[in-house]
Amino acid sequence: MTANATHHSPSGRVLVVCTGNVCRSPYIERVLAHQLNGSGVTVTSAGTGALVGYPIDPESARRVAAAGASPDGFAARQISREDIAAADLVIAASREHVDEVVALNPRALRSAFSLPDLADLLAAATYDDVVSAPGANRVAKVAATAVRMRGRVHPRPLSASGIVDPFRQKPEVIDRMVHEIEATLPIVVSALRG
């Protein structure tokens, strides 16, 4: 259920960001889109230093398929200001990626989070918190809820605030990436599905 970020999505748009856009962000994009299938949410990804045109890393692609999603037809792309402006929520692999997103578009300060940080913030929120949050769609409401929770949730230490980068690493590092994503993504999926 991936689509170009410029396409209209009444349920909202999620942009996933990492560095090369070949390991972490495509894995999250494809698995998140699969788990949100039927919700109307559009999920895309991009890299801050993308290997433009490259497919998903083969080890990441295997993990995507194992999660029940499809790695087919993917091509890495460089993030743009327009991508960020079109997104209701930006999920980054690390706080460093959040910083790069906000540097490109300062308005993203209210919509960009590392995946572990976002999961922590949403874990502390209730269904009513999301429903009552401002926003034109469910995804925007989830982002607004996470912003509201920032003052109530103690932040993770920096060392635990991101997803490990498995690029050109051993398969065990890809397994660690998947484990870190699986430990946090279900909370985000639950909030986005409502």
UniProtKB/TrEMBL annotation:
Does the keyword DNA-binding feature in the UniProt annotation?
Answer: no
InterPro entries per UniProt: LMW_PTPase (IPR050438), Ptyr_pPase (IPR023485), Ptyr_pPase_sf (IPR036196), Tyr_phospatase_low_mol_wt (IPR017867)
Top-level EC class as recorded in UniProt: hydrolase
The chain positions of domain Phosphotyrosine protein phosphatase I read 12-145
Look up the EC number in the record and give it.
3.1.3.48
Write out the entry's keywords from A to Z. Answer: Hydrolase, Protein phosphatase
Active-site residue list: C18 (nucleophile), R24
- Work out whether the entry's keyword set contains Hydrolase: yes
Entry's Gene Ontology molecular function annotations:
protein tyrosine phosphatase activity
Q: Which SUPFAM superfamilies match?
A: Phosphotyrosine protein phosphatases I
- Return the similarity comment: Belongs to the low molecular weight phosphotyrosine protein phosphatase family.
What protein name does the entry list?
Answer: protein-tyrosine-phosphatase
Q: Which organism is it from?
A: Knoellia sinensis KCTC 19936
